[in-house]
Design goal:
Number of strands: 0
Shape: globular
Number of domains: 2
Distance between the termini: 35 Å
């Protein structure tokens, strides 16, 4: 699960992988915008969009199980947003449309990240003049996310090796302690990295 979230790219020799990153990013943004602007009851258009994504997924030669697993990992976010619509009048119809739109958009992003390297995506953002500070922040976040996940794993294992009680309250306290210490260590690491970058001439 950790690898699926942090390293979504899967190398394959396919026409989709060989496309320019700018073309894929532009197509993905156009698809997401079109889905968002569709009326709620445009089920035929939703089906056409899903068919297009499935065709692209087939052309990418990525195993369907891998794409489905990544989509299921992010689907709770779409479900959580869509559930809020149940509180409105005609909420069931709004819920179905919101969940369908969100799922299609997420599947599009999963397909994009699975066929395009993150470094290529950053180069596209740089070329279209996205603020350099934002691009640098995304690059650093992607680089140090692996470090934080590994450190969280080491802290969790260390905490478990020193914990002999298995009741739920102790587990929650242990998790809260790991999260708190990880936040403190992350802040300290960020300050050290920023100081090192400034010492090497980096400017905001």
């Amino acid at each position: 699960m950790r690898r699926a979230l942090l390293e979504p790219y899967q190398h394959q020799r396919s026409a989709i992988h060989r496309l320019l990153a700018a073309v894929k990013v532009g197509g993905a943004l156009a698809f997401v915008l079109a889905i968002v602007l569709l009326p709620r009851a445009a089920w035929t258009a939703y089906a056409a969009g899903a068919t297009l994504l499935l065709l692209l997924a087939w052309l990418s030669r990525i195993p369907p199980a891998a794409l489905a697993r990544r989509l299921l990992l992010v689907e709770p976010f779409a479900l959580g947003v869509a559930l809020l619509s149940l509180l409105q009048p005609n909420g069931l119809m709004i819920f179905a449309a919101a969940l369908t739109k969100s799922t299609l958009c997420l599947f599009c992003m999963v397909l994009l990240s699975s066929t395009t390297r993150f470094s290529a995506l950053l180069r596209v953002l740089w070329r279209i003049r996205v603020p350099s500070l934002l691009v640098t922040t995304l690059a650093l976040m992607h680089r140090y996310l692996f470090v934080l996940v590994d450190e969280a794993g080491r802290m969790t294992r260390a905490r478990r090796s020193r914990t002999f009680s298995r009741d739920r309250a102790s587990a929650w306290r242990s998790s809260a302690s790991v999260i708190a210490h990880l936040f403190v260590r992350s802040s300290e690491r960020a300050e050290r990295i920023y100081a090192a970058m400034c010492a090497r001439g980096w400017k905001t």
